[in-house]
Amino acid sequence: SGQAMTRRRKRLLVVLAALLLAAGGVAWYGQATAMDRQVDALLDEVRIEGPGLVARWLIKLGLMNDRGTYRSRYDVADDLAKLGPLAVPELIRALRDSDPFVRGCAAAALSSLAESRLADARAVEPLIAALKDVDEDVRRSAAEGLGELGDARAVEPLIAAVKDKDEDVRLDAALALGKLGDARGVEFLIAALKHEDRYARQDAVRALGKLGDPHGVKPLIAVLKDEDEHENVRSSAALALRRPRDARAVEPLITVLKDESEDVRMSAAEALGVLADARGVQPLIAVLTDESEDVRSWAAWALGMLGDARGVAPLIATLKDEDGNVRGTAAWALGELGDPSAVAPLIAALKDEDGVVRVFAAEALGKLGNSQGVDFLIAALEDEDVGWRAACALGRLGDTRGVEALIAALKDEDEHVRVSAANALGKLGDPRGVEPLEELFRDGSTYVRRAARRALEELRGPSEGKPFDGAQ
After folding, report:
1. Of 60, 149, 430, 443, which one is least surrounded by beta carbons within 10 A?
2. Second CATH level (architecture) for the domain 1-191
3. What is one Pfam family matched by this protein (predicted)?
């Protein structure tokens, strides 16, 4: 019958869409342009006709990936979450499935949707019930989702879950309580800092960092200062002190910049960059000569975040560091600081042997807004590592000397360079760019065609920037 045919067709649509999503279909169908329109139409129809069925099939078909190995429930949950709020009813039903893997996928997907504010109050009671699931991973995901949903009905069930037999469930329940504003969650996590198992202590530290509750600052500082504590736990404590931005954390973090542990020093430098307290400037400058290249790199990053002019000269000197990542981070930081004295050293860095350094030097020159670097950036358009960054920088600088070189770059074999060159020509506003940009409407790359359209809108106004047929 016609109805039976419609049902079979709908089920086929659902199965095909689920396979595309669960097996990473986007990667392979994107290579076959002849199929693009058919696949887009298929997915559009599924979004209208059967998001709940797609959720069901994704769970079942997502058990195996294209290599024949089991996927984690969180991989499948990520695919499920992409279906949006229309999948919520089916996910709620899946929480009662006999297969713990299916229940876990559903709980994790609802948690992800809640975090993105796409789930709603319908999920609260089912997730509360899932706190008593026999599978600990289901209980963990349920706790996480309830914390994100922020519904007061979850408080008492989560308090009960803080006494769960599984350590991870207890920590996730406490974290959820903290997100709901219940002090008992923070109290539990602080108490867990004394747990006999260091992994449990580290989890508690990280949970306190996620919460950013001021009551957690003093206990976290105590962990950071405890030289008998494992370095991984202390390193996590340093990172946890990024939130809230509490001034009490600054001096302890400065102190451990000299710690024996490389991980602790590195985390302290990162935290000081986030806290952005001027007291950290001189200690971070001193760390630019640390024996560890990772610590030096984080110190350079932190100085860029702090934005203090005292960091300029030391960062210029760091452009000659033996490690390429350190030099690159220093170049980035100089761009953030915006001091004109960095222009000449950054121009020199455009010839660095390391592509990372050249990339960040080009980007920094664009941020500095000094036309002294224009000719060097034009030359850098030919650099396969730097080309598109150089084009972006030329657009930022607003100097029309770069127009002809950018027009030539519209024919570069790298689509990123063509996109950046088109964007830059739009920003420069020079009429010489109009005709070459129109020619890009026939480019084989959708991204390039869109960039050309946007650039022409900037040059001539929205009504004049519309592409010819096939340029969408």
Report:
1. 430
2. Alpha Horseshoe (1.25)
3. HEAT_2
Which among 116, 125, 70 is positioned nearest to 95, based on CA atoms? 125
C-alpha distances (whole Å) from 236 to each of 240, 259, 350 are 6, 14, 36
pLDDT tens digits, 269-313: 999 999 999 999 999 999 999 999 999 999 999 999 999 999 999
State how far the Cα of 167 lies from the Cα of 139, in Å rounded to an integer: 11
State the pLDDT at residue 422.
96
- Burial class (CB within 10 angstroms; exposed 0-12, middle 13-18, buried 19+) of 230: middle
Q: Are residues 269 and 295 in contact, defined by beta-carbon separation less than 8 angstroms? A: yes
Q: Is there a contact between 369 and 397 (Cβ–Cβ < 8 Å)?
A: yes
Q: Looking at residues 341-364, what average pLDDT do you find?
A: 95
- Rounded CA separation 393/361 (Å): 10
Task: Name the packing angle between helices 415-428 and 446-460 (round to 10°).
Answer: 10
Nearest-angstrom CA–CA distance, 353 and 348: 11
Most confident of the following: 1-5, 259-263, 366-370:
259-263
Phi, psi of 70 (to 5 degrees): -65, 135
Q: Specify the DSSP element, H or E, that contains 287.
A: helix 281-287
Q: How many CA atoms lie within 13 A of 338 on its CB side?
A: 7
* d(C-alpha 91, C-alpha 78), whole Å: 13
Phi and psi based region of residue 179 (left: phi greater than 0; alpha: psi -120 to 50; beta: remaining): alpha
| 77 vs 103: CA distance, rounded Å | 10
Q: Are 107 and 141 in contact (CB under 8 A)?
A: yes
